Amino acid sequence: MREEDKERGYDFHKASHTETMTINMGPSHPATHGTVKFFLTLDGETIEDIDVEIGYLHRAFEKECEAQKWNGVFPYTDRLDYTASVLNNVGYAMAAEKLIGIEVPERCKYLRTMISEMARMSGHYTNVGAGALELGALTAFIYFIEARELLWDLIESICGARLTHNYVRIGGLTNDLPDGFRENVKRVFAKNRKLWDDFDIMLTKNRIFLDRMRDTGGISQKDAIAWGFTGPCLRAAGVPYDVRRAQPYLMYDRMNFDIPVGSTGDNFDRYLVRMEEIKQSMSIVEQCLEQMPEGPINVDDARWRMPSKDDSSTKMEPLIFHFKQIIEGQSIPAGEAYQAVEGANGELGFYLVSNGGGKPWKCRVRPPSFALTSALPLLVKGSMLADLIPTFDMINLIGGECDR
Amino acid sequence: MSEEKNSGQGGVSDVMARAKAVLGPMGVLIHTHCQHGDDTLVVQAEDILKVMEFLREDKSLRFDMMMDLTAVDYLGAEEMHPYLKPMKARFEVVYHLYSIEKNHRIRVKVPLTEESPFVDSITGIWVGADWFEREAWDLYGVVFRGHPNLKRILLYEEFEGHPLRKDYGKMKRQPLIGPVN
């Protein structure tokens, strides 16, 4: 405002102000990945107010889980954050194991750590790639989708599925590593490192990308904590909270990795944090393969182990256990437990309640992107409409996880 | 106040000891336990703001983050917790708090009866509780008094009932709705 205007009490901005416009953006908009509706009040191109409407992908996750046997929940957890589905498997299995009070064998822990990191890479590839795509960088997107495809080939060779892996079971895993896996990892990671470098060259110092990402969608440390931010978005704001480091589970206490932290909490920092985490995850996968001992991948106790297909069709006792587990479900002792793991988007917590029956009495998942999305109005109010796109991308709402 | 034996090894955690030392004399604790190593406080609904403010502000606790908020319906399973039957409680609102500074967790639970499923909103303490409370209202019908905008979040406005209640059948259908305007 000009000084003389201020003295006259004249506000040019106000005087030239047109009426605000309300528009609906979504629920299916080409510039947003995820099904969500924004009810926007715009003053020109500035966002005056925004109401975020979620729930378009609600499919009664909890109600379905309450109707499934304990092991039957896994396919549903796959569909929470479907870009990093094994992480959900692992979180749920660990919560159930906490309720039972069993510990899985060391090799199983290593395998779970390894595949969790592969899932995190897949989640970050998708997020960063799709984020670039929605800012117009189709080429960069293709590079990371190629990296993700190669990664999924690896995961497919372990468990037979590319997207919804359904790999983990209470008390263990479905499969051990296939032959020649280590060589394949070496080959794929060499290629993925190359793709990462190319992606980095294309975007990180790209003027257009920088202009769209830097100083948009920022949040302060204090606000980030108050809004329940976790994961890359919290770390981008400068809080080094990572469940893997703060409360190590599986084999993370034996892994050597860095936790990248941002300083401004804007979209560009979120992007950089995720990029660095991809590198760190690759290193964790390699460390797991190096340290992994031979041994069983399932617990010894037959009550908590799903018998293998071979055993259950050739031997009497495994057949009985298999039948009991499928028909009655495992009778997990009554109680409640909360287990958090570091998901691709932040703290992924499972709160399970058992009444001693074969089904969960309650199967709650704490979705990280739900808390992140709830702060979206704070992040974009007062900014340009175009800034909504990178902010929403870097918040990374995953419909399956947020809406459940 | 009743108390369960710790199922974990060792004694009472520092968090629990501190919480009990302050909240115990205030007479707000109904029950405490430490199942599977998760410290848990059960408190009266009318005391929730007092308890939460203490947990957030206390220098040795500093629970600065509201990690999760949900509800549980114990219809037909009230015997799972010793305090539910005497209180005639059906629901429990469950809060999971975390302290970034101190790196510890706690669970706080509030039993509620079917007739008055009311509890004060904690959005004044942790602003991030907003959507979580809306979700608990949406799916369980728990009313958070003082919430700035308590409306459905995952379901649509015309939805009838609260689907995560145990007496809501899994196959129950909802009437079809047309365009609103």
Characterise this structure.
The complex is a heterodimer of chains A (404) and B (181). Chain A has 19 helices and eight strands. Chain A has 404 residues and is mostly helical. Chain A has a three-stranded antiparallel β-sheet with strand order 1-2-3. Chain A has a three-stranded antiparallel β-sheet with strand order 6-7-8. In chain A, a hairpin with a 2-residue loop joins strand 2 and strand 3. In chain A, helix 6 runs antiparallel to helix 7, helix 6 runs antiparallel to helix 18 and helix 7 runs antiparallel to helix 8. The mean pLDDT of chain A is 88. Chain B is 22% helix and 26% strand. In chain B, strands 1-2-3-6-5-4 form a six-stranded mixed β-sheet. A two-stranded parallel ribbon of chain B has the order 7-8. Chains A and B meet through helix 3, strand 6, strand 7, strand 8 and helix 16 of A and strand 4, strand 5 and helix 4 of B.
Brief characterization of the structure:
Chain A is mainly α and 404 residues long. Chain A has 19 helices and eight strands.
What characteristics describe this protein?
A: 404 residues; mainly alpha; 3-stranded antiparallel beta sheet; 19 helices; 8 strands; B: 6-stranded mixed beta sheet; two-stranded parallel ribbon; 4 helices
Number of helices of chain B: 4
Q: Would you identify the regions of chain B where 5 or more consecutive residues have pLDDT less than 50?
A: 5-9
Q: Which blocks of ≥5 consecutive residues of chain A have pLDDT under 50?
A: none
* H-E order of chain B: EHEEHEHEEEHE
Cα(first) to Cα(last) distance of chain A is: 47 Å
The helix content of chain B is 10-25%
Strand order of the largest sheet of chain B: 1-2-3-6-5-4
Q: Please tell me what the overall shape of chain B is.
A: globular
Order of helices and strands of chain A: HHEEEHHHHHEEHHHHHHHHEEEHHHH
What overall form of chain A do the CA principal axes indicate?
globular
Alpha plus pi helix count of chain A: 19
Largest interface: A-B, 43 and 38 residues
Task: Give the spatial strand order of the biggest sheet of chain A.
Answer: 1-2-3
Structural class of chain A: mainly alpha
Main beta sheet of chain B: strand number and arrangement?
6 strands, mixed
How many angstroms does the end-to-end distance of chain B come to? 54 Å
Cα Rg of chain A: 23 Å
- Count the beta strands of chain B: 8
Quaternary organization? heterodimer
Structural class of chain B: alpha/beta
